[in-house]
Design a protein that fits this description.
Length: 261
Amino acid sequence: MKNNLLAVDVGNTSVLFAFFSGRKLVKFRRVAARHYKTRVLSVLRAHFPLKKISAVVIASVVPPVGSFLKKEIPKKLGLRTLLIGRDIQAPILNKYKNPKQVGMDRLMNALAAFQKYKKEAIVIDFGTAITFDVVSRKGEYLGGVIAPGIEISLEALFQRTALLPKTRLLHPKSILGADTVESIRAGCSFGIGGLCDRVVDEIKKHEQFKPVVIATGGYARFMSDYCRSIHKVDPMLTLQGILFTYQTYQKNSKKFLTKSR
């Protein structure tokens, strides 16, 4: 059987499933994280060739969801399932002061960035939060920055003010909004773009390097129009990190097997 992987990226907002045949991404599906108990198994049965899958590998930043999938996928679907951080380790040197505090998605992004570009990198992930993760020229995870995400910012404006409306982020017509909704869109797009450029500039000064800057996450393409620092847009970076982790595990399973719990 060809080595086929189902990579699972569990985030705060959604769960993303991707089927890899070797290194080729064949198909993917997204499920809202709040439906993980009711929809995940039916989506997998309906949309993925279960008999062709060699293994399922999960990277999760939501422990209850990761644990649920780790238990239910082998039980209900009969697929070998590995949870990164529990069954296998991320094959990257993590230099965070407390390594356990780093979200697994951030480590997967850092790993994939270095494996793809083989140089210093800053990964901006436009997810529930906006994270900036820094990779050294040796492929080490150095640390990063966390800022409020776009959806969180929009929701906070609606929830914490009396008159500002609930707004969906679209490209503003100009920097000067002619109404409240357009003003909010301009603030979020140009404002968050400016935040990203400033953070990237400060990281470059701190590290004294010239990294490749990669955007990933749900708003990556949108924000690439407003953040001048972005060089590459790669929405599937986290999933590629999961793939690299599994490939490393296969090559040297003894080294990356964690102690059983």
